[in-house]
Amino acid sequence: MENLKEKLTGEREKARWLMLEEHNKREALLIVATDLDLIDVAVAVASDDVKLIKTLLDSEQLKRPDETMVKLFEEETDFNFNFVIIQPYVLAQKIEE
Fold this sequence. Notes:
The chain has helices spanning 2-11, 17-25, 38-46, 50-58, 67-75, and strands at 13-16, 29-32, 62-63, 80-86, 89-94. Helix 1 crosses helix 3 (38-46). A hairpin with a 2-residue loop joins strand 4 and strand 5. The protein is of the alpha+beta class. It is built from 5 helices and 5 strands; from the N terminus they run αβαβααβαββ. It has one domain (2-94). The protein starts with a helix and ends with a strand. The mean pLDDT is 95. The protein has a 5-stranded mixed beta sheet with strand order 1-4-5-2-3, with helices on both faces.
């Protein structure tokens, strides 16, 4: 598990909404709440930790962007995100400035 965490940490990248928008259109983008550790969530998804993922989805700490979020991301072009790809998903987290 630690090797997976190290691997995903090394694969974390930064992007603006324009780059993530394509993944959202194919419904593969999941937004991770800013109070969570992106890599820990990515490990849970990669490890198929159904219980934790269900908890995060139910609490909306992990969710597909809704229309309001998308509109905000499109309008505020200065937003930056960290993201990790866990096929077939892209997990993204807004970087708090």
